[in-house]
Design goal:
heterodimer; A: 240 residues; alpha/beta; Rossmann fold; 2 domains; 3-stranded antiparallel beta sheet; 25% strand; B: MetI-like fold
């Protein structure tokens, strides 16, 4: 069993009287890829924003094994800086937030861009890159800061099946280097194919993560099966 | 006809005066424009991110100086301030009045530019661990400046044109020199020449604004 790099316990988030989730706990091991599925509005993206500190949790504890190696987030819409080329996008935080010198920052940025297969595109601005390439720059930008955990919000929403496979391969390369991944997605096929473990966030509750084969298999818990094939479980309507 | 409106001899005699006036006009324009930019940027940042009372103060300043005619302000500065013991030269008065008004317009332009940069850009900066000043300096302002170059250039053209108002407070700018030379020679040629000089400077700037606007694909 790999060492735990992130553990969230008893997390609670509410918007006014609406409780998004409560008593939610997640553990991520080094190099693990956990996929969270769930209906729209279940709070998957909010959970990521809370983990990143963009929103505050209303309760719970987040513990990182190595606080110096924090978390990175790849937004659904990437949010590259349009006025900077790929290299500039990656070096910006290395220089401004981590205080590296120009040479060291560029070396690390080039490494990160090479890891996602973009060494030939370092001087291209985001506007001159395809959606899939922009996503890779966003991954490199997060990766260059050497986070222990990378969070992905709907990473396949803008990708065709071929590019989705390419992304899966990039993610596998990251987990092989020990980076833990937490992905929220609607893409069942992506989760089934690329995640180590899958969990369902629904009605404020997170199911126990299961290996993909078990999550999508006939032995999965009833709530999971009801979510995966709503027609087969009429006793529990999803939208009241 | 040509003798009257474009008299070569008159022009030759008036030229040294016109040249001096032109230089002064350009100095006044450049100084007012730069001060207006700096003041406008500071006002925009205070108006967006400053503490509440300061934000209200900035709004009041911007509204007042956009409403007040430049000429009225200039005359107030030049003729009224001495009554409270503050006597400014014609050049200083004109610079102050032009920069005060320009900074109000610039502040609105810069504010709109900053607000046009998507909030997600700031969030991306936060997620990468940048501080608020770093996000502003490295992410938001560089993108905002790109958006505001055309309206900012347009505003600078207005400032340059408004420098002619300084002739009212006896500053020997291009217009003042031209009217004096016209009176001296009893011939409108210096005025025609002055108008030509204004066009020579401003037409390329106007054309540049149009080009910039077309390139950015957003008419304003």
């Amino acid at each position: 069993m790999s060492p735990v790099v992130l553990s969230l316990t008893g997390a609670r988030k509410a918007f006014g009287a609406d409780e998004l989730f409560s008593d939610l706990s997640i553990t991520l091991a080094r190099g693990e890829h956990l996929c969270l599925l769930g209906p729209s509005g279940a709070g998957k993206s909010s959970l990521l924003r809370c983990l990143m500190g963009l929103e505050a949790l209303d309760g719970g504890t987040l513990t990182l094994a190595d606080p110096a190696a924090g978390l990175g987030l790849v937004f659904q819409d990437f949010r590259l800086f349009p006025h900077l080329d790929a290299l500039g996008n990656v070096t910006l935080a290395l220089r401004a937030a981590q205080g590296l010198g120009p040479g060291e920052a560029e070396g690390r940025a080039r490494d990160a861009l090479a890891q996602v297969g973009l060494e030939a595109f370092v001087h291209k601005k985001p506007g001159a890159l395809s959606g899939g390439q922009q996503q890779r720059v966003a991954i490199a930008r997060a990766l260059a800061l050497r986070p222990a955990v990378l969070l992905f919000d709907e990473p396949t929403s803008a990708l065709d099946p071929e590019r989705t496979a390419g992304l899966g391969a990039v993610l596998r390369g990251l987990t092989a280097r020990g980076v833990a991944l937490l992905t929220v997605t609607h893409d069942l096929a992506f989760a089934e194919h690329w995640a180590d473990a899958v969990a369902l966030l629904r009605d404020g509750q997170l199911t126990t993560p299961l290996p993909a084969a078990r999550f999508f298999g006939p032995e999965a818990p009833a709530t999971v099966r009801a979510f995966l094939s709503p027609g087969a479980a009429p006793e529990e309507p999803s939208e009241p | 006809m040509l003798e009257t409106f474009f008299n070569g001899e008159v022009l030759l005699r008036a030229w040294p005066l016109l040249w001096e006036g032109l230089l002064l006009t350009l100095q006044l324009g450049a100084l007012s424009i730069v001060l207006g930019w700096l003041g406008g940027l500071a006002l925009a940042l205070l108006g967006l991110y400053g503490p509440g009372p300061l934000r209200a103060l900035v709004r009041a300043y911007v509204d007042v100086f956009r409403a007040l005619p430049v000429l009225v302000l200039l005359i107030l500065v030049y003729y009224a301030l001495p009554f409270v013991g503050l006597s400014l030269s014609a050049f200083a008065s004109a610079t102050l009045a032009l920069a005060a008004v320009s900074s109000a317009y610039t502040s609105e332009i810069v504010r709109a530019g900053i607000e046009a940069v998507p909030e997600g850009q700031s969030e991306a900066g936060r997620v990468l661990g940048l501080s608020f000043p770093q996000i502003l300096r490295l992410i938001v302002l560089p993108q905002a400046f790109r958006l505001v170059i055309p309206p900012l250039t347009g505003n600078s053209i207005n400032v340059l044109k408004d420098t002619a108002l300084a002739s009212v407070v006896a500053m020997p700018d291009l217009l003042k020199q031209a009217t004096q030379a016209q009176a001296l020679e009893a011939n409108p040629t210096p005025l025609i020449a002055a108008a030509g000089l204004y066009l020579l400077i401003l037409l390329p700037l106007v054309a540049m604004v149009r080009r910039l606007e077309r390139r950015l694909g957003r008419p304003s």
